[in-house]
Amino acid sequence: MHYTGPKNRLSRREGLDLFGKGTKLRRATVPPGQHGPKGSRRLSDYGVRLREKQKLKRIYGVTERQFQKYFAVATKVRGKTGEVLLRILETRLDNVIYRLGFTPTRAMARQLVSHGHVNIANAKVSIPSYQVKPGQVVTLSPTSVKIPQVLTRLDSTDFHPPAWLQRQAAAGVVLSLPERSLIEAPVDEQLIVEFYSR
Predict the structure, then answer these.
(1) Element (H, E) at 11
(2) What is the pTM assigned to this prediction?
(3) Which of 24, 33, 110, 162 could form an SS bridge with 94, CB 3.0 to 4.6 Å?
(4) Which residues, 6+ apart, have CB-to-CB distance to 122 below 8 Å?
C-alpha cells in the first residue's frame, strides 16, 4: 500500500526533498516526531543502510514489497546489483514520464499513467510499474496535454531530459538503458546491497 500521509514528513526523515517538488523543507534538519532533535542519535551500521534503502524506496514511490521484488530481480542480472536496481527503478513507466519532464513530480506521473493518459506503441498502458524498453515510444493522450501542469511543461524550453531519453512535443523515446552516471538518485546503492546481504 502506498504512503498517503504528509510527504514533507518523509522528506524531513531522510533530510532531502524526496518528491521533486523543489520546495524548501520546513525544519529540514529536524527529524519528524514529538521529541524532535532529542530523539536523534548516531545511527548504527544497520541504521545507515536501512535509511539508504528507505530513501531510495520513497524517492521512486514504490512499496516495500515491490522494492524487494526489484532487488531480487537485480541480483539475477549480470552487472553490479545496485546499479541494476537503479536501472529497473528508472525505467518504470511513471519515472520515464517524470524524467521526460511531462510532470513536475513522480506522483503526478503515476496518476497520469493510472488514469490511462499514456500510450506505448499506440496502446494505452495504465500500469505505473511497466518496464519501458529501449526503442519504445511513450506518448501522452490528447486529453492529458490539456492539463495545466502538463501544458506548462510542454511549452517550456528550459527542460532537457537525461541523455538516455529523447523528447519531442508530447512524445518521448527511451534511447538506451541508463548508466549510473545518468541516474540522478542521491543514494549510495552499495549500502542497499549490503542491507539485503546481511
Answers:
(1) helix 7-14
(2) 0.81
(3) 110
(4) 139
Question: For domain 7-88+185-197, is the CATH number 1.10.1050.10?
Answer: yes
- What are the C-alpha distances in Å from 32 to residues 42, 46, 72, 79, 111? 16, 20, 31, 37, 27
Q: What is the pLDDT of residues 76-101, one digit of tens each?
A: 999 999 999 999 999 999 999 999 99
In degrees rounded to 5, what are phi and psi of residue 184? Answer: -85, 75
8 A C-beta contact, residue 108 and residue 143 = no
Number of residues that make up the chain: 198
Tell me the backbone φ, ψ of residue 28, rounded to 5 degrees.
-55, -30
- What 3-state class would DSSP assign to 97? helix
What residue segments make up the domains of the chain, in order of their start?
7-88+185-197, 92-176
Give me the architecture of the 92-176 domain, per CATH.
Roll (3.10)
Surface-to-core class of residue 93, CB atoms within 10 Å of its CB (0-12 exposed, 13-18 middle, 19+ buried): buried
For helices 45-60 and 189-197, the axis angle rounded to 10 degrees is 120
